[in-house]
Specification:
Layout (H helix, E strand, L loop, with lengths): L1 H7 L2 H7 L27 H28 L3 H6 L1 H19 L15 H10 L2 H13 L5 E8 L4 E8 L8 E7 L6 H4 L3 H8 L5 H11 L2
Antiparallel strand pairs: 1-2, 1-3
Length: 220
């Protein structure tokens, strides 16, 4: 089922969610493109270790188990019963695979939005980069419970828009350009219940080069 869905995903989603070429087609935890402590002081090493090796790994394990159960289910009723597990764990794997690439150390490319197509599009659709960050943070902080804040590309009207999704729902209405995890496991050990501080800090390690690449793929 998901193998069919993956072929229809937008380029940036497909790139992040591609299953390894193994005989069992099991999903695996992707390596981080930086060390666990590389995003400090904005995201702590402890959070990164737990978030990546425990939480993301749990979504990978859950997705593999759900897909295996789906393949072995003898009835349509049992397959339908597995939809929530496929959505939750599959979405968690998609979202986190995008999220890790969304980040970069501050002493590398993190936080640096150079002049180019992405900056021009943000200024066109939000007025300024600072106004975009302000609106993004407000929308993401307002999520009740857990979820994700997104900068997404709307291919219908060719604009960038701020979108939120609940729980681990992947962004399907837009092409994801930037995604921020607002689940407590992403920030609580460092920022406790102050979401605003986490959302302010994370812009220092956002990989705008990756975001611009996603925009370029979406607008081909």
């Amino acid at each position: 089922m998901l193998s069919i869905a993956k072929s229809a995903l937008r380029p940036s989603l497909a790139r992040a969610f591609a299953a390894p070429a193994t005989s069992m087609s099991l999903h695996t935890l992707p390596d981080l493109p930086y060390a666990y402590n590389a995003l400090e002081p904005y995201i702590s090493e402890t959070i990164m270790k737990l978030h990546h090796s425990k939480h993301h790994q749990a979504y990978v394990n859950g997705l593999n188990a759900a897909e295996q159960a789906y393949a072995q289910s003898p009835s349509v009723k049992e397959k339908i019963a597995l939809q929530s597990a496929l959505k939750f764990n599959g979405g968690g794997h998609i979202n986190h695979s995008l999220f890790w690439k969304n980040l970069s150390p501050a002493n590398a490319d993190g936080g640096n939005l150079s002049d180019g197509p992405l900056k021009k599009a943000i200024e066109r659709d939000f007025g300024s980069v600072e106004e975009f960050k302000k609106k993004f943070n407000a929308a993401t902080a307002a999520i009740q419970g857990s979820g994700w804040g997104w900068l997404g590309y709307n291919s219908v009207n060719n604009t960038l828009e701020i979108v939120t999704t609940a729980n681990q729902d992947p962004l399907l209405s837009h092409t994801p350009i930037i995604g921020v995890d607002i689940w407590e496991h992403a920030f609580y050990l460092q920022y406790q219940n102050v979401k605003a501080d986490y959302l302010t800090a994370i812009w220092n390690v956002v990989n705008f080069k990756e975001a611009e690449q996603r925009l370029a793929e979406a607008t081909k």
